[in-house]
Amino acid sequence: MITDFIPNPDFLVSPAARAAVEPLGQEVIDLAEKLAPYRLGYLEKSISGEWVEEGGKQVFRVTATDFKGDWQEFGTENQAAQPFLGPAAMQIVGNLH
User: Among the four residues 16, 31, 38, 67, which has the most C-beta atoms within 10 Å?
Assistant: First the structure.
């Protein structure tokens, strides 16, 4: 499960810009950990963030590596969705536009 967010793609070109955006990424991670459905804690512990270059742009990517992350975020045929990454990103970053 991956959620990319870029508050302003043209802004992310300098170390100062990265320093301004990275705390927002950490806020998304912290909130996603709180929103993640908890059973044994594997999903919440698998949430992390990193900078990646994609298509010539710097992107801060928040990822849940637990294999059940997609099932929780989007649901399955037998299980209702319990989204945690999307709502966390929208709550923290969605208001920046």
Answer: 31
